[in-house]
Structures are given as structure tokens and as C-alpha cells.
Myosin motor domain-containing protein (Saprolegnia parasitica), 1106 residues
Amino acid sequence: MADAVGTAVWVPHENVVWKKATVVQKLSETSVQVRFVEDEDAYDREIGTTKTFDVREIAKLAGEVSATAMPICNSFEKLGVDDMCTLNHLHEPAVLKNLQLRHAQSIPYTYTGQICIAVNPYKWLDLYSEGLYPKYLEQPKTSLPPHPFALSSHAYLDMRKHRIEQSILVSGESGAGKTETVKIMMHHLASVSGGGEKGSTVIDQVLKSNPLLEAFGNAKTKRNDNSSRFGKFAQLQFDASGYLIGARCETYLLEKSRVVGQTQGERNYHIFYQVFSLASELKKSLFLEGNVADYNFVKVGAGSRVDNTDDSVFLQETKDAMDTIGIDDREQHGIFEIVSAILNLGEVEFRKETVEKCSVLSLERVEAVAALLNTAASALQVTLCQRKMTAGGETYMIPLNVDQAADLRDAFAKGMYSHLFDWLVGRINRAICSTKNVASHIGLLDIFGFESFDHNGFEQLCINYANEKLQQKFNSDIFKTVQAEYVEEGIPLDLVTFEDNQPILDLIEGKLGIVDLLNETCLQPKGSDSMFVNKSIDRVRMDPMQFKIVHYAGDVTYDGSHFLDKNKDTLPSDLLELLASSQSSFIRDVFPELSAKETPKTTPGGRGPPKSAPRRQGFLVGNTIAGSFRKQLGELMDQIAKTSTHSGVPGVIAAIRISRAAFPNRLSLKEFTSRFAIICPSKLRTAPPEAMVLGLLQRLLPETTSTKNARFAIGRTKVYFSSGLLQQLEDRRNELLRSFALCLQRNLQMHAARARYRRMRAAILVLQAHLLAYVAGVRARRQFLTLRSGVLGTQARWRGLVQRRAFRVLLVAERERKEAERLRVLAEAEAQTQLERAAKLQAASAKRMAWEDDEDEVPASPRPSYHESLIEKSSHAELLARVGQAEALALEAREAAEGAMALNEYLQKENKELKTKLAQNVHEYADADLKEENDRLKHELMLLQNKVARSEEVSLIAAKVVDSRITFREGRQFVEYKLQIETNSRGTLFVWHRYSTFRNLATTLQTKNGEKIIQDRVAKLNEFLEAATRAEYLQWGIRVDQDTCVYKRRTRSSSGADREDTASTTRDTVSIAGFRASSNSFSDEKDAPRQSFASRFSIKRNKSTV
């Protein structure tokens, strides 16, 4: 039940109209206590509070059929529903909630059956592109979002198919968008109908008529900046082929009172402001001086600006529309003259002469009005201050007081504008209306919506009267639709009833109704507003001076003041005679009654007394506004009754009341079976839908299935429920779903906990695996390092052993060579000494021989003895022997040195072969003994290498560094070496450093010209190596570590001759492969044959090694 505890319902609220709540307690049959709950809105203080409501009052406000049925909340999606007839619970709160959701998502249109409801978004949406025109014409209505194009397309297709005239009714409050909706549908119909070049001209004229009528019939109000102040019924004319060939427009109830006065915040009609944007010379000829605020009829709204509008721009649009319609320059000038005459007429003021007499105060304004109307200023002045009365064949001039003269002035202004508007409508019809080949038409009714203000007058009565007429038509159409649906579903029609608003119409338009009473009072000489109200009181039994009418949309209280004046729709005869004297042909066109007015004629020949003039009409000429409007509405309803009607917006709640009169809730059989199969017994789930529905209701709600019970009805495709019955089924379903939800929650929580446990367990296993892998990696790394150090140690010890042996042999040979050289030098020196001595002896012999030649003169020296000659010969022979011995020793030393060099080459070759075999043994064999031996050799090699490194350190003093690099492949990896040339006191050193791996090389290659840079480095290095090898440039080389080698430049001896080095050793040392092998050390220092190389040089590990 709707009042069951916990049910979500809607309750009335003074601020938000309807507020969501849940039933807390049922206090009585007609009273419940509810608690306000959150409804997807911002938090408010009332959430959680309780309040007591009268169920009958809520049901009445919500439009429920039952007096005790509360409006139940529906479950809405974010975008609401396209058709509100699909709601399970359809009432006023549901309609408002659905419209609110769609408006929040900028969806302005919603269906309620055949009705299209529009909520004005007050912004232009991209919903009216020409690409949508054919879609709504070709595709079904249900396959596209709600749109006015659906109504216009349905009307056009219905007209083409059945040759039946169509009408689309658009109604709503001021500012709801009625005029824009009509224009949108007119554009759609004009575009889809086509018609070639001629059709384009007609379409342009039809569409251009809208801005022209808006300029003269629209004004700014408090709710709408472009409010239509008249009703319009536009008939689009089509030929037999469906082409648009013309249009015809009828207008109703123009708000003439707006011409002479507006309320604060509103404006007069747009044209009165547009004329001030005319050219200065034209305004001067129209006697328009100053600004808008200087004129009484427009100064109230002069300060009320219309946003994003420019009167000069709209004036140009108005003139363009006149040109399109075919209004020539003469007629346009006449229109502006009448508008200017009305503005100047509002500036005419009166001065009190006596109590019953007045005179014109502003004569210049009267002259301006007379000039614009092309009449005499004196005649206009007299007409404004006096009125003519004829009685008993005599004419009397009755003066007017100030108030009467002002009323006459305003009536004159309203009458001129009303006639101008009627002439403009007729002129548009003459331009766009077709009289030939009209096969059918589609009418679009744009009429004022229902109005109820704090103060309601004559205009509101006429407007609400028109809406009552439309509502009657609407009710009839909806009732017929419901009847057709029930017949189609096979439901008895006697269950459907609805309230008709005919009594209200009889009250207004019937015999002795309000319209007749008003017209009767107007015809009485001393009729007054109070007399009319008193008659209305007697008729409707209301309070004095006010009467209330219970309309379909609500009760409205009317104030009868000024009803008689507003109901008089004629001009005084004096003003008609004044206008008849105008010399302007345009004035006579605007006032057609002037051409029909007869003038007195003389007898033929001009003799005899003239015939008696016809009796002048009284003060009022023509029909009253209420009477004319009643006649127009009757003709309009007759015309609409002959058409197929498509509703735009009116009477949503009334439509709900009618369509849901007997069965407020309905579901399709398919939806019912899918929704309530969960609470059906298993044997009913496979039964036909009808049997399933009947069996379920008999099982769950047996009291509703008794004989002749009308609480539900099963149709051919739908199930209809009376108020509250569907909610009982929903309550049973919700209870079962709640138990299912609890079971699902338990299982979901179990699965979530189990999933968390499995994720944690998997994560722990992953962590353990990573930790074990890390520990195993550390162990493997340690084993590898141990194995590597053993191999390196073995290699180092073996290379050290081989090198030491070679060094010792070489050292001995070098020492012997140097000793032989020393002995040879000593022998040569001794031989030289002996030769010098022999030379001296020979010189002494020669001198002695010279002395012997001069024996006679000089006494001869004593000859050497034989013994002395023998000594000299023996010394010379000994010297020669020693020289020969020294030469033999030198030759022997040279041979020994050559043998040592050959031995050195052999040892190097053996060293390389041994290293290769050792590496192969390490990788190819896994024998335990071999591994143990390798480990031992590696360890010894490492110790030996460390000793050599520590004992052979050389202090390098860098003076100049030149960088060069070379890249080559080592196995699967690219290795780059960097060359540094360092000069110190001992010579020039060439230091090679292992620089980077493939990653740095790839980075270099990615840079600009990276490949060329590496190629240049390789070329430079090759040139250096070739030059060094060719010139025996490098003298010795020592390997500092596995990534660094140091080379020393070959020095010159003191004699300037280069000492010879072993070229093959140097070439092997410089080769690129030698960077990964051991390098031999050489020395050519003299004067220290026994001194070790380590005692003279100290090699220091280069810190820049990578």
C-alpha cells in the first residue's frame, strides 16, 4: 500500500513544491507521518525530520484518482524517461521530477503519450540542424529523442497520406517558448515540403512574416524578452503534391492597453523603439525629437534593456521583412507615420479650464500629429476636447474634462495601433496566401497560456477563456485516445470516465453568462463596472467588485474594474470623421470603415432640399471585444475540429487524470512477466503471460480477483492496475530482492576476503622467490668471483714464471753482450794505444834514420838494441791478439743476444698457447681435479699480479692529454678504449683505458654524426699504430691491469743513434689483441746491467680506468 511503513512517497512542500519522504507511521485512515529523505539534491536541514500530512489533500494535489492514494516515488534514471506514460506511477510529482532530471541534462523535450512537453532551457541548443529534418520524417517516432520535429513530421505525413487537414496546438505560460517552437516547426515544414524556385520564394515570405509580426506584436515582459502579446493561428497551405504554396495568418486579442502604458520592468511593442534608429532626416520629418525616454508611451520601459539586442539591427530586419512581403516605400513610410503619430499623441497634455471643460496644453504636439495623419490641427484639437452628440435631429458639442480627454486620447492611440496591426496582418496574407491549387493545410496555433496573477483583469479573463476552450478540445482528444487504447486492449469502456469543463464554458460564454452580462452592461447608458460585478455576483454568488472562476488549471479571482472600458472596441464617431478628412490614402487603407462611411448627397441637379442624413450612430461603433473574441474562438474551434489535432504542451496533468482515470498504473505483459517472475511459483514461470498474471494475483492478492472486481484488467498486451495494487506487488518483490541482496552480499564479501588472501599468498610466494633468487645469485656471484680470481691468479703466476725465465736469459745475454762490448772497447782502446805507441816508435825510427843520413854533420844516435826491437814486435802481436779476442767475444755476445730474442719470441708464443688452452680447459671441462688445480693457479696468479703491481708503480706527471678512442668487438659485446698521451720527465707515455660498453657506444651512435665520430677515432688510432710500428716508435709496454696498458716512447742514446729494439715484440705489444693479453717489459738503460727493472721504474694504477 502507498501508506505502508517504509514506502517512498512525495509530499507537498512550500519551497520545492514536492519533496521526497518515507512513511514512518500511519496515524489514521487519512493521516500519515513521514520522514524527509535525500533526493539527489544538495543537503538541507529538513532531511531526517518528520511531519504529519493529510492523505486526502496530498492525493488531490498530486492528481491521484483515489482520494486516499499517496503519490509513490518512481525509480528514475539519470536522463529520466522519454515518454512519461511509461512510468509505473504517473502523477504530478512524477511528471515534475522527470522534467527536472531532463532539464538538468539540457534535454528540453519529453513525451506524454501524443503530447510533447517543452521546458525552455533559455539557451540555444544544437538540436535543430537541417540534418535532423529528414530523420524525423523517415524514421519512427520511438527511434528518435522527443522533438517538435516529430509532431510536424507526423502532421505532414498524415496530411499527405489521408488528405486530412492538420493542426498543431502550442500553448504555455509566457516565456515558455511557444513562439520559438512554432517557428521551429514552420522551418521544418517549409524545408521538407520543397517546391522548387517558386516554393523557395513562398518559404522565404512565410518565414519572413514572423519577424515582421514580432516587431508589431511582441514586447518585453518580466518573464520574457520577446513575448507575443497576441494569439496567432498560422495555416501553411500545400498543393496536392505536398509542396508549400502559401500561408494564411489569423490573429486574436492583441493587447492594445500596452500601447498607452506598461508596468515597471516591461516595454512597449518593439516597433516603438526601433523607429528611433531611423535616419536623422527621416526622424525629423516624423517629428521624433530627443530619446526614447522623452515620450510618455515608452519611457516606462526605456530603461529596461533587452539583453544581446540592438534596436537598429532589428529595425533593419523589420525593413527587410517588409521588402520580402512586398510592402513598398510608400506603405513603409505610412507605417512609420502612424507609429510616430501615436508617440506624439502620447505627449499631448490638457489644461483644466472648468470642472467640465479642458483645453490642449501642447499645441505643437497636436500640430505634429495632424501633420503625420494629414488632417487639420484645429479639427484634431476640437475632437480631443469635445465630443459630438446628436439628439432629436440636432447636434450638440459636449465638452470633456481632463480625465475624459486623456481617456479619449488613449483610446485614439490604441485604436490607431490596433487598425495598423490588423492592416499589417491582412497585407501579409495578401502577399503569402494562395488562392489556387490549395489541397490541404497544416495549422499552427500559438496562443497565450493560462494566466493567474495577484491582480487579474479583463485580459486574463479572455486568455483563460481561450484556454478553457482549448482544454475542452484537448480533453476530448485525450479521452478518445484512451478509449481507442482500451478498445484495442479489450477492456470495457464503462470503466473510463472524466470530468468535462463544459460548465465553466457555459458560465463564461453561455446564455446570460459573463460575456453576455458584460455586453449588456456596455450597452446601458449608465452602465458601470460595479453594475457588471453586481450582476456577476448574482450570477456566480461572489463578493462585491470581484468574482472567482474555478478553471481547469485552478481558481482565479478577477477584479471587475475597467472591464467596460476595455470591452469597448470602437472609436468615437468624431475621431472617425476626423480620420475621414485625411488626405492620406494610406490612412484610408488602414481604416477600412472610412471608405464604407456614406456622405450626404443632394438631389439630382442640385435642386431641392437634401435628403435627410442617416441617423448617426452612438458613441460606440461595432462589436465589443468580448463578443468578437467569443465569435473568433467559436470559428477557431470549428476549424480545428475539422482537422487532425497534434498537441504541443497544454494540459499535462489533465491528460494524466484522463488517461489514468480507471487504472493509474499499467505494465506491458512482457515487462510484468520479466519483473515479477521472481515472486512467481516455478510452475507459473513457464505459463503464458495472461495465466501468469492471473495466477500470481490469485496467489498473492486473492481479494483482488473476486468476481466483478475491477481493481485490475488484463488486456491483449498490457496489464492495468488500480491505485495501490501495483505497489503491493512491488513490496512483495522488494522483500524477496532484499533477502537475495543479503545473500549476495555475504557471498561477495566471502569472495572478496578469499581473493585478498590469495593475492597476499601469491605476493608472499613472489617475495620468497625473489629473496631465494637473490641469495642464490649472491652465492653464484661469489663462486664466479672465486673461480675468476683463481684463473687470473694461475694465469698471472704462469705468465710471471715464463717472463721471469725469459727475463733472466735476456738479462744474462745482455750482460754478456755488454761485457763483450766493454772488452772490445777496452781492446780497441789498448790497440789504439799500442798503435799510437807504434806510431810514435815509427816516428822515432824515422827521425833516427834522418839523423843517420846526417852522420857526417851530426853525430849518429845509438841504435836500439835487438832486445828492444823484439819487445816492440811482441807487444804489437799481443795487441792484435787481444783485438781479435775482443771481436770474437763481441760476435759471441751478439749471437747470444739474438738467441735470447728468439727464445723470448718462443716463450711469448708458448705463453699465448698456454693461456688459450687454460681458458678452454676452464670452460670445456668440469673435472673436479682440474677445477681445483685451476683455482690454485688462479690464486697464485692473482697474488703474483698484485706483487708486480705493487712493486712496479710509476708516478705519471700529466702535462698534456689528447683523447682518442677505438671500438672493437669482444665476443658478443662492443668495447671502447680511450687513449691518453701523457708526457713527463721520463718521456711520452701512451695509456689505453677500457672506456665503455655497448650502451655508451649506442648512445654515441644516436647522437648527430655519431657513426662518423667513431669511424674517425678508429682511423686515427690505426694511423698511430701503423706509424709507431713502422718507425719502431714504442720501446716498452707494461700492463697495469686488465683494462689499462702503458707504453713508453723510444729514447735516443747520447751518441744520437737509435738503439735497436725488437720490432716483432713491439708490434705484438701494440696490437689490439694485446689489450687483453700480457705485455712484455723492455729496458735500454745503460750503466746498470745488473739493476732490475722494478728498482728503476714504479708503475701506478691509472685512476681513470673504467
